[in-house]
C-alpha cells in the first residue's frame, strides 16, 4: 500500500526560495507540508558565508515521518546555485537543523533533514540554509531549486 507524499518545490541562494505545493489527493488527507514561499540569503564577500532559515509546518496524523530535501535534479544536479547565465557557484548550497550547523551540502538525491519524527498536527521544523562565497564566484544574484518530500514511515 502506498502512502500519499507531498512534494514541495523551493528555490534559494542570494537567495530566494520559491515554493509550489502539490495538493494531496483527498482534502481530508492526514499528510500535509507547508513551506514559506521565499527565503533570501543576503550578500556576502568571498571566503565568507551567509545563512538564513525557514519554518516548515508538517501534519502527519497516522504515522511517524521523515522530512527530506534535495536540489531540483533537472536544473540543479550539482547542488549549486546558479546565476541568470547558469554559471554555478563554487560551493554547494548547505542545509542544517541548527543555526550553527553542521551544514550538509545539498545533493540531487533526497536526504533526511528530520528523521522518524512523531506523528502530530502543525509541527514546526526550522531548516537553516547557508551559502559560502568563493573568489571564483561572479558577482550577482544566484538561485537554487530545492524539493521537500514528506514521507510517512
TrEMBL record:
Keywords: Signal. It comes from the Bacteria. This is DNRLRE domain-containing protein. Residues 1-29 form the signal peptide. The keyword Signal applies.
Amino acid at each position: 500500500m502506498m502512502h500519499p507524499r507531498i512534494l514541495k518545490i523551493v528555490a534559494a541562494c542570494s537567495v530566494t526560495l520559491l515554493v509550489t505545493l502539490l495538493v494531496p489527493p483527498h482534502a481530508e488527507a492526514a499528510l500535509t507540508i507547508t513551506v514559506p514561499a521565499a527565503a533570501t540569503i543576503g550578500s556576502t564577500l568571498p571566503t565568507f558565508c551567509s545563512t538564513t532559515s525557514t519554518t516548515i509546518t508538517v501534519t502527519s496524523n497516522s504515522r511517524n515521518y521523515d522530512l527530506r530535501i534535495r536540489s531540483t535534479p533537472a536544473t540543479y544536479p550539482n547542488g549549486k546555485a546558479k546565476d541568470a547565465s547558469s554559471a554555478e557557484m563554487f560551493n554547494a548550497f548547505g542545509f542544517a537543523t541548527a543555526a550553527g550547523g553542521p551544514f550538509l551540502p545539498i545533493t540531487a538525491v533526497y536526504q533526511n533533514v528530520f528523521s522518524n519524527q512523531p506523528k502530530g498536527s502543525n509541527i514546526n521544523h526550522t531548516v537553516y540554509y547557508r551559502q559560502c562565497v568563493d573568489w571564483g564566484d561572479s558577482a550577482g544574484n544566484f538561485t537554487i531549486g530545492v524539493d521537500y518530500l514528506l514521507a510517512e514511515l
